[in-house]
Amino acid sequence: xGSYLSSFFGGASYSExxxxxxxxxxxxxxxxxxxxxxxLHFNSVKETPKLMVIDFSASWCGPCKFMEPVLNDMAARFxxxxxxxxxxxxxxxVAQEYGVQxxxxxxxxxxxxxxxxVVGAQKNDLEKKVVKHKAL
Length: 136
Description:
The chain is of the alpha/beta class. 40% of the residues lie in helices and 26% in strands. The protein is built from five helices and six strands. It has helices spanning 2-9, 35-45, 62-77, 92-97, 123-135, and strands at residues 12-16, 28-32, 52-57, 82-87, 105-110, 113-119. It has a six-stranded mixed sheet. It is globular, with a radius of gyration of 14 Å. The protein starts with a helix and ends with a helix.
């Protein structure tokens, strides 16, 4: 129902991964298009111990496009982790709040606090940090 409401209000959407998943539910990356919807989501998960990976990217960014299938694959494999995508051109206030200066930037958040970060299309680094922090 939450995804229905989100799609109804136009603030968030799920981006389906096209490969590597037997279940479309496990291969979703939540994309936000409005700051209020992002804030509602963040507030709803900030008290949980679940790891959230925020992908700050841009539609014109080549390395971001390279990382998109990587992120979808990780979302399919690490179902216990929330994966979120934010376009820095659509939500510059959120990008500024996290001090994003280059794309892609992946911010790993747990209990509302940044626990790690990967700047650039560093898929191996990102996966190592996701594995490390999801276990903590």
